[in-house]
């Protein structure tokens, strides 16, 4: 697995690595548009260097102060980028988009910065 903490930045060099030893590393991360606009698609580009195989059943966990998402890493990230699990050691780049949902309670004309942790 890999893990890194996000502090509202758009380049991996400005991210803080979580404590611990992780055999698979995120080598670059970006998203567009920046800043993210609620009610629009966000396109993510994530490059990783795997030194161990990612097995079927691996999960991706994104935690913030306001929400927590646990998703199927193979299905939602790897296979959405035309790779298949198990994903052997090597260098990979995943590109995927998702819609940033809105609710009627969202503030209008406001920029919100949140801290996020992705594992």
Model description:
By secondary structure, the protein is mainly β. It contains one helix and seven strands; from the N terminus they run βββββαββ. Strand 4 (59-64) and strand 5 form a beta hairpin. The chain starts with a strand and ends with a strand. It comes from Racocetra persica. This is 32373_t:CDS:1.
* Shape type: globular
User: Spans with pLDDT under 50 lasting ≥5 residues?
Assistant: 1-12
Strand content: 35-45%
> Helices and strands, in N-to-C order?
EEEEEHEE
Oligomer: single chain
Protein name: 32373_t:CDS:1
Short note summarizing the structure:
This protein has 119 residues and is mainly beta. The protein has one helix spanning 73-78, and strands spanning 4-6, 25-32, 41-50, 59-64, 68-72, 90-99, 116-118. It has 1 helix and 7 strands, in the order E-E-E-E-E-H-E-E.
Task: Give the tags.
single chain, 119 residues, mainly beta, four-stranded antiparallel beta sheet, three-stranded antiparallel beta sheet, 1 helix, 7 strands, 5% helix, 38% strand, 32373_t:CDS:1
Question: How is this fold's topology laid out?
Answer:
Layout: E1 4-6, E2 25-32, E3 41-50, E4 59-64, E5 68-72, H1 73-78, E6 90-99, E7 116-118
Antiparallel strand pairs: 1-7, 2-3, 3-6, 4-5, 4-7
